[in-house]
Write a structure and sequence with these properties.
The two termini are 26 Å apart. The longest helix is centred in the middle third of the chain and has 35 residues. The model has no long low-confidence stretch (mean pLDDT 92). The chain is mostly helical. The chain is globular.
Length: 161
């Protein structure tokens, strides 16, 4: 099998897995979702030298204050991964110019972000937020940019040979 087709298949699988993970997280009810993000914060608090020796009351306060930030970072991060995978997939098509690849990748990610927020509307104790679509879009843009930067670096390396 041609190397480009293998890379294309890998990025397609990664895109599907990332979209499935997003769907799974959005399917969690509000309570379960909150427990997940609180658990992440607690783990970080228990590892960091500045916070691991705090008493339980102080740890709870840090958890409650940090949870919204962690939730937004999770949105940003997983959509960075989605943008990277979608753009990686599209970049295997040499017959589509780079500008169209970028526009298509971002369109796919933004439409998925909107559908994700609509999906959350049907999960118990979850509400769709336009802010989350914006955060998801910013993450997608970063993912697309990472692919573009890596592509430029690869081209420069090949030109130097």
């Amino acid at each position: 099998m041609h190397k480009t087709k293998i890379v294309r298949i890998i990025f397609l699988i990664l895109t599907i897995l990332t979209a499935a993970a997003i769907f799974m997280f959005s399917s969690e009810d509000g309570k379960k979702s909150g427990e997940t993000s609180r658990g992440v914060v607690k783990t970080v608090i228990d590892i960091l030298p500045n916070t691991k020796n705090l008493d339980e009351g102080q740890k709870q306060e840090v958890i409650e204050n940090s949870q919204p930030i962690i939730r937004k970072l999770a949105h940003f991060s997983i959509y960075t991964l989605l943008g990277l995978n979608v753009m990686g997939f599209l970049s295997t098509y040499n017959n589509i110019n780079t500008k169209k690849q970028i526009i298509l990748a971002l369109t796919i990610c933004i439409v998925y972000a909107i559908s994700d927020e609509i999906h959350q509307h049907f999960s118990a104790n979850r509400t769709p937020k336009i802010l989350d679509v914006g955060i998801d879009t910013c993450g997608s843009i970063l993912g697309v940019l990472i692919v573009q930067i890596c592509s430029k670096i690869k081209m420069n390396i090949l030109e130097d040979k």
